[in-house]
Amino acid sequence: TMVHLYGETGATELDGERLPQLSISASVRGGRLTLTPVNVSYAQPLEISVQLRGCGYRRAEGRLLAGEPQAHNTFDEPERVIDQPFEVYLKGDVLRFTLPPASLAAVTLS
């Protein structure tokens, strides 16, 4: 199933290069739509509003990876970076959520 994404976002500077603050992908599997947005900014949160046209989804769940940009798991700290539930709001055909700085999310609609 093809998913068309269109968005407008501000830019952020990372290592001297200007980049869009939002990177996002979408996939459909088994009737569930999964959006995978990334907030590229190390400093600014990003408010997201998604217009879902003709989809009829009634439930939304979010999982989030966030924290220090250079954080990583090690044998000594195997759970330093773990995904956690985060709040997403679905009202009618509009999905809303806020991504913290330097975060990756998976939002699943069913």
Structural notes for this entry:
The structure is a single chain. The chain is built from no helices and 10 strands. With 110 residues, it is mostly beta strands. The strands form 3 sheets. The chain has a 5-stranded antiparallel sheet, with no helix packed on it. Strand 1 and strand 2 form a beta hairpin. The protein is globular and about 45 Å long. The mean pLDDT is 90.
State the end-to-end distance.
15 Å
How many β-strands, per DSSP?
10
Please provide the ordered H/E string of secondary-structure elements: EEEEEEEEEE
Let me know the average pLDDT: 90
Radius of gyration: 15 Å
Identify the strand order in the major beta sheet: 3-4-10-6-7
Query: Which strand-content bin applies to the residues?
Result: over 45%
The total of helices stands at 0
Specify the overall morphology: globular
Helical content stands at under 10%
| Structural class category | mainly beta
Largest sheet: 5 strands, antiparallel
Task: Please provide a brief summary of the model.
The protein has about 110 residues and is mainly β.
Layout: helices, strands, pairs:
Elements: E1 11-14, E2 17-20, E3 22-29, E4 32-39, E5 46-51, E6 60-65, E7 84-86, E8 89-91, E9 94-99, E10 103-109
Antiparallel strand pairs: 1-2, 3-4, 4-10, 5-9, 6-7, 6-10, 8-9
Structure characteristics:
110 residues, mainly beta, 3-stranded antiparallel sheet, 0% helix
